């Protein structure tokens, strides 16, 4: 049992070190998987719920930026329907006591970034999550120690 636990601990440490050393590749892999999920956004309820939560919590939109939503067949500018050339409402700025406008991201993909700053979040979620991790690295280190020490 001790050897199994030691191997798990070493693998966890190696995984963390490799992720830090190859940060750019890690970010690229994450962006690639987020974009793959965005393609199936309305078909995969679990991914949709996670993406909606992340976009609301971290005030971000898409993977690398808001224009990533063009990969989704409903949000692509060539698609028919009300969602065409738009982003999900979770990308939009919202006021605390207002009713959510679910079409607030309507026709934003064909506009310039500066025109959208007060309408939707233009920062990508990958960057927003990494900024949050860097701002809270002490808490993350404490959590890691809390997991690693008992092992």
Automatic annotation (TrEMBL):
Tagged with keyword Cell membrane: yes
Annotated SUPFAM superfamilies: Tetraspanin
Membrane topology according to the record: Multi-pass membrane protein
GO cellular component terms attached to this protein's record: late endosome membrane; plasma membrane
One MF annotation (Gene Ontology) recorded for this entry: enzyme binding
Superkingdom: Eukaryota
Keywords associated with the record: Cell membrane, Disulfide bond, Endosome, Glycoprotein, Membrane, Transmembrane, Transmembrane helix
Gene3D superfamilies according to UniProt: Tetraspanin
GO biological process terms held by the UniProt record: protein maturation
Major location category of this protein: membrane
Subcellular location(s) of the protein: Cell membrane; Late endosome membrane
The keyword Transmembrane helix is annotated on this UniProt entry: yes
Family as reported in the entry's similarity comment: Belongs to the tetraspanin (TM4SF) family.
PANTHER family: TETRASPANIN, TETRASPANIN-15
Job description of the protein: Part of TspanC8 subgroup, composed of 6 members that interact with the transmembrane metalloprotease ADAM10. This interaction is required for ADAM10 exit from the endoplasmic reticulum and for enzymatic maturation and trafficking to the cell surface as well as substrate specificity. Different TspanC8/ADAM10 complexes have distinct substrates. Promotes ADAM10-mediated cleavage of CDH2. Negatively regulates ligand-induced Notch activity probably by regulating ADAM10 activity.
Record text on subunit structure and interactions: Interacts with ADAM10; the interaction influences ADAM10 substrate specificity, endocytosis and turnover.
UniProt name for this protein: Tetraspanin-15
Lineage: Eukaryota, Metazoa, Chordata, Craniata, Vertebrata
Gene designation: tspan15
């Amino acid at each position: 049992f001790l050897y199994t636990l030691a191997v798990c601990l070493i693998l966890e440490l190696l995984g963390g070190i490799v992720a830090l050393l190859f940060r750019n590749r890690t970010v690229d892999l994450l962006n690639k998987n987020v974009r793959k999920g965005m393609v199936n956004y309305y078909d995969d309820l679990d991914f949709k719920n996670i993406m909606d939560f992340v976009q609301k919590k971290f005030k971000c939109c898409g993977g690398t930026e808001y224009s990533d939503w063009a990969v989704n067949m409903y949000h692509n500018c060539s698609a028919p329907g009300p969602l065409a050339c738009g982003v999900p409402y979770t990308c939009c700025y919202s006021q605390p006591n207002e009713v959510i406008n679910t079409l607030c991201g309507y026709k934003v993909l064909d506009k310039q970034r500066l025109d959208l700053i007060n309408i939707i979040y233009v920062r990508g979620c990958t960057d927003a999550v990494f900024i949050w991790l860097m701002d809270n690295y002490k808490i993350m280190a404490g959590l890691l120690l809390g997991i690693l020490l008992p092992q």
